[in-house]
Amino acid sequence: xxxxxxxxxxxxxIHTDGYPMSIGEIIGLYEKNELDxxxxxxxxxxxxxxQKTKLIESILLGIPVPSIFVSQREDGVWDVxxxxxxxSTIFEFVGVLRDENNSVLPASQLQKTDYLPSLENKVxxxxxxxxxxxxxxxxxxxxxxxxxxxxxxxSDKATKYELFQRLNTLGTSLSAQEVRxxxxxxxxxxxxxxLSDLSEFDAFRACISLSDRQLxxxxxxxxxxxxxxxxxxxxxxxxxxxxxxxxxxxxxxxxAEDPNFNFVAERDSFVRTFQLLESATGDNSFRRxxxxxxxxxxGFLVSxxxxxxxxxxxxxxxxxxxxxxEEQRNERLLNRVKSLWKDSSFQKNSGAGIRGxxxxxxxxxxxxxxxxx
Length: 373
What we know:
This protein has 373 residues and is of the alpha/beta class. The chain folds into two domains: 3-169, no CATH class; 187-370, no CATH class. It has helices at residues 3-11, 23-31, 49-61, 84-94, 135-143, 159-166, 176-187, 189-199, 202-208, 212-216, 219-232, 235-240, 244-257, 263-280, 302-314, 316-321, 326-342, 344-349, 356-370, and strands spanning 16-22, 35-36, 68-72, 78-82, 145-151, 288-290, 295-297. Strands 1-5-3-4-2 form a five-stranded mixed beta sheet. It has a two-stranded antiparallel ribbon with strand order 6-7. Helix 11 (219-232) crosses helix 13 (244-257). The chain is elongated and about 75 Å long.
């Protein structure tokens, strides 16, 4: 197929429309539940009060604001796929923004800016007229228009997820997993909740021993996803993988869309794997082992996670069924972990500068074999 054929084929899968809408009209759609900004997303977007003020200032001064991208669902509701923070800021300022429990949040107040210092402490409405926008200012604000780009429901359903990833320019950079979480909420809220709960399992958290910053960016959820994705990956899938991040995203989509995904069995396997690791190696599970000093050193290493957690997870049934005392089982697992660090292939493919795809192709089969009970 030629390049032009590919372009023509893909263009037929994407149906779009675009037009300006007044802020008042957009507020009306939101209040009638015809516009879904996904309140769950609020935990991922972290605009400061000054960033929010500057958006309101831009609207007041007629400074162009980037387009809002929405996707039309089968029920006609618009899913916001780019522009959530802009719309949330507007809705919060006028006092209509709702949280995940459908409770209206307190209206925000503005800060002073270089252009409009009198914005300091201004609110949308207040009995004290000096603190609030005037009626004329409120009317003018609601008449200002935002450009809306609509991905119609006839489009390929993967389009909105692809577009969300490409347009992730929402003021505050998100981690790769925070972007995936937004996609997952749009795709399957229940799967998102399940994966989030899984990542908060005590034994798992104890083994990965992440920093507060990593937890804030939901790296724990990425690791839980990485465990699930690589645990089931075939060698052919690993060989074809061009980018680990993209592979994790696609694996997440497949699991979330699979009506036969066994939540109970997958959670049970996950729990048993990390309970065993916590018992045997604790917060040393994914640190570098130094054989000369017989100590675990440094912080969490993703190569160790892929080599140990995935390898053990693929063999957890045989470890769980082995009729041996806990102390003996823990000693055996500890020795397997140490032996992995001594393996020349692991050393060659787990160091700095090794591509994630190269590492996964080499280490997952190796660890699958090494951690057989």
